[in-house]
Amino acid sequence: MARWQPDAPGRLAAAALDLFEENGYENTTVIEIAERAGLTKSTFFRHFPDKREVLFGGGTVAGLLVEGIASAPPGAGPLDTVAEALDALGRTFFTADHRDFSRRRQAVLNAHTELREREALKRIGLTASMIEALRHRGVPDLTARVAAQLGTLTWEIAFDQWIDAGNGEGFGPLARQALAEVRAAGAAG
Amino acid sequence: MARWQPDAPGRLAAAALDLFEENGYENTTVIEIAERAGLTKSTFFRHFPDKREVLFGGGTVAGLLVEGIASAPPGAGPLDTVAEALDALGRTFFTADHRDFSRRRQAVLNAHTELREREALKRIGLTASMIEALRHRGVPDLTARVAAQLGTLTWEIAFDQWIDAGNGEGFGPLARQALAEVRAAGAAG
DNA sequence: CCAGTGATGGGACTTGGTCTCATCGACCCT
DNA sequence: AGGGTCGATGAGACCAAGTCCCATCACTGG
Q1: Which one of A31, A99, B182, B185 has the minimum C-beta count within 10 Å?
Q2: CATH 3.40.50.150: does it fit domain B61-181?
Q3: Nearest CA distance, A65 vs chain B (angstrom)
Q4: Chain A residues within an 8 Å CB radius of B185
Q5: Residues A131/A149, Cβ–Cβ less than 8 Å
Q6: Other beta carbons less than 10 A from residue A47's beta carbon
Q7: Tens digits of residue pLDDT in A152-181
Q8: Rounded Cα distance, A124 and A129, in Å
Q9: Which residue of B has its CA nearest to A123?
Q10: The domain A8-55: what is its CATH number?
Q11: In CATH, what is the architecture of A61-182?
């Protein structure tokens, strides 16, 4: 039998989410997280650069976005291209069985400034990835920045709705509708 | 003669900026900052909630934005309202004699992830203030969110140009022009 | 059976941040 | 002038985050 149970990072992330829900972020010690996962502080920091990052593990989102933008139909406008990327996100990441986890995670993030700060930084990174991917398609810089910004806003709106939705409505359609509304609001501004 | 020199927060902020430029953010200790200002660690944390915040002291920006939005002409559209607010910022905050300080400060912020993270959080707060002020004028929620988001983007663009500009071009005109470009890019997306 | 490799444990150490108590200076009041 | 109050500072103990180094264990291949 193995001394080491598999998937240490996953166990740490799960333990952290549990403890943050139970006692709050700042009342939870890294040592407590590690102990609940059957590990130690050393191992925690070997897998995550800091305490906050334990909630931002699955870092494939940027890749999905870039891929989605790159594989959009050649004639598509910038915002439609972004919509394509959001769809890809909905198919791979924001799927029905991740919804409960996403809701729990987001509730913790919303409750603690320190975590929302990290979330903001991540969001900037993702927006930058989208801008880069759009420019790679030949979209002018400023247009790409506007489209990415509106895309991020769309994502935010759709995500909130997806989290709150009692029915099992998918992320993709919600994003499509949110994008249409953002577009209309932009035209009205 | 006074035991206490005046303006402890200002001296701490100045000392911090100096030291961050000299040795970098993470190589600078709060104790070092305090000592250079002729104070102690205790006093530092009495004036600033944490080490990062020492670079985000002048917290009147949100007020200026809200005021600018509130005092825009009644008939103005959302984006023009935001332009009004950016103008107010340029008149009061981003004035010619603050340009050098702003450049130094921004250089430090750009160089350290920890500080850009805090900057991102501040930006979110300001965007939220703008949204609230716009809604208070009767702007529909979604329109307000889009306008505020584009306003923040405009700000970012204009600020970068203002920082880099060799000539003494003012922030206001730069923001006006940036907004026009953002508008055009939005229409093209 | 043994050596090498990679993940973990353990503990010392620095720093950010909190808290409490003592101290000092200015101002007020008589 | 003298005493008392109040706000700002100093001093130091204390906890938790994060870094670093080295020992230890399990697995693998010879």
Answers
A1: A31
A2: no
A3: 18
A4: 140, 142-143, 145-146
A5: no
A6: 18
A7: 999 999 999 999 987 779 999 999 999 999
A8: 9
A9: B120
A10: 1.10.10.60
A11: Orthogonal Bundle (1.10)
